[in-house]
Amino acid sequence: MKSNNQDSNILKISAYGALFFAVMGISWGIIANSQMIIFDGLYSFISFGLSLLSLFAYSFIQKEDQKRFQYGKDIIEPLVIIFKASAIIAMCLFAVSSSIIDLLKGGRDVALGSAAMYALIATVLCMFVYFMMKTKQGNSEFVRAEAAQWLMDTILSAAVLSGFVMALMLNQTTLSFLTPYVDPTMVLIVSLYFLKMPIRMLINNAKELLMMAPSTDIQNQVEQAVQRAKVKYNFYEDATRVTKVGKTIFIEINFVLSKETTIHNVDELDVLREELDTELHIEGYNKWFTLSFTNDRKWAF
């Protein structure tokens, strides 16, 4: 329960932090006439909405409702993260198109000193929030996704800061005519770079929705435990299925018995079930464990 409350509090901090950066970024961007800062503010505004969505979904998942959700509510987690990733991808693609249009129009004149000051403040504050979330996060995919968003915002702000400092230096040289192109160029580069992380989030959580196999580490742990039991009790064959949805790992093991199998009654089967349940404990995850036995392999496969 303590871990659940901590995750909920972290999500609230993330939401309030995103709202603060949204207001600051959009306002400062309009004053400084910087598309890059406005993009940063819009990203924070979208993050605020997505953080509220995560908080609502997280709270909903924590409320037990076994009558309606007999297999749990974990499927909601990848659904929400896919929506979040899709929203960030859409925003990045919009920013790419806007920056290209600005470049074709001859760039954008920006109040460089003001813009650089914003970027410095944003970089420091975003980094602080990210490390706070990183050190306190539990095993919630929601919190991990929020931390990933703040990491992206930190990288964005640092890139903006570097770009504006370079523009200030460039403005003092004979190449000052290139200064208007700095802001839209940064938007273009950062937007394209940002696409990588939400695309990865989208793919990983789509695999969970499709109930595909989990990470190799989880599969290996399950397979090793199954093979040890198979050898120890002389089972003829096994069929093992594993998938991960949110914080729950679903494990189904079917053993096909043979004449040499050393288990002969239900009590001994339950002893094995207890052994496997202990061996298959995976830190940080809930487990849905089903173990079946049959003499006919058609019921296993």
Automatic annotation (TrEMBL):
SUPFAM superfamilies: Cation efflux protein transmembrane domain-like (SSF161111). The chain crosses the membrane at residues 12-31, 37-61, 81-104, 110-130, 150-169, 175-195. The keyword Transmembrane applies. InterPro entries: Cation_efflux, Cation_efflux_TM, Cation_efflux_TMD_sf, CDF_Transporter. Its main location: membrane. The keyword Glycosyltransferase does not apply. It is found in: Membrane. Keywords: Membrane, Transmembrane, Transmembrane helix, Transport. Residues 11-210 form the Cation efflux protein transmembrane domain. It is a multi-pass membrane protein. It comes from the Bacteria. Pfam families: Cation_efflux. Belongs to the cation diffusion facilitator (CDF) transporter (TC 2.A.4) family. This is Cation diffusion facilitator family transporter.
